Please model this.
Amino acid sequence: MIKIRPDLKPSDLTKKIARLWEVSAPKILSIDKDDVPGQAAPVFTWEGKYTARGWTEWTQGFVYGSALLQYDATGDESFLKLGRDRTFERMAPHITHVGVHDHGFNNVSTYGNLLRLLHEGRIPDAGAREQDYYELALKLTGAVQADRWTDIPGGGFIYSFNGPHSLFADTIRSCRALAVSHGLGHVLMGERDLKISLLGRLIDHARATSKYSVYYGEGRDYYDLRGRVAHESVFNKNNGDYRCPNSQQGFAPFTTWTRGLAWIMCGYPEELEWLATVSDDELAPFGGRADIEAMMLKTARATCDFYIEHTPTDGIPYWDTGAPELWRLGDYLDRPAEVFNDFEPVDSSAAAIAAQGLLRLGRYLQGKGEEQDGARYFHAGLTVLDTLFDEPYLSTDRNHQGLILHSIYHRPNGWDRIPPGSKIPLGESSQWGDYHAREVALYVQRLAEEKPYYTFFGSAK
Model:
């Protein structure tokens, strides 16, 4: 269980965050130097160099979005130029990519950050039509993602790249694309000019994910442990019936892949924040504010509690809470995570994502008057980051292109590098881990400096 430090404040992390941005800058430039137009996007490192994996193109936005976050945090306009130029040059195909469920990852990280910066007055030479360009991109990406739809009894979900039968836990974080698009007044147009609400699809997807991907200790099956997450939920496409849990990147359907858990933890609190910008009248056709918020809050609390209870004391999880060799580590939850062990790897990228969820849920509850619970989650998030933003996780080697070390991509497929002398993968980085470390660093930095609260939907209003 995480040993939460209630004394930590955002300002206590400012030195570590400043160091993070310092080591981050040359890594972004090094990746860009090696980035060849037309080739597959960088995904994860191998011997410290970013490589591609021809699976799905879901990480390009993290590459250029990282440059925009670097500018946001440091004011170095060369990174604004880099992120802006690369978005203009290379991101257009991702706007209309009909084959992925990752529009929020690719396009809100780029076009979304640019529109937010423009609204904040942070793009000094913005042209007269630049805002229109970003808004059009964000309108389109939300609609394209929403069109990947499977109907099920009582609702539906955005299906994964596996096909219409497949609901992934990951996608809730990518629903930010639908949120921004809806906030800009857009809809998905269907047959015979049917106007399909992006808000409605976001809420339906959130309900399906909450119901099928997350367990609540209510007797659903023999392994129904509150807060446990199934990476994939499988449905019968013929009639929409739910069939079973599954896992693509975790150990098993009845264990919890911690990055899948982290996507849920991060996705629901930020959607709860966004719902505060949506009127009661807009929410009424989809169940009303009280019902929608209660569903999202139940899911956020359960998964964040599970993370706190099933993660080592320093806040860094192993890659799966049911990984088959964890038992060999003994009481591994009663001490800090052991990066250099002989049995199972940690996953720092899950920690980077989960920390933001803990922080946002904590702030949300504090804003609702639940000070004690809110403080618990918030300080848990800071505890995770106090570990993550330091060695052995922060990569200070200028020859290593990764920012956060000891990330895991696909353990079952054997895609992660096992270095000489080790029995498990370690020492490498991922684009999603590095981007989310930068994003949560910016989040905490803005809190410490009392600057505007960082949200993905700052661009929508």
Summary: Residues 1-34+311-338+364-453 form one domain. The longest helix spans residues 14-34. The chain has a mean pLDDT of 97.
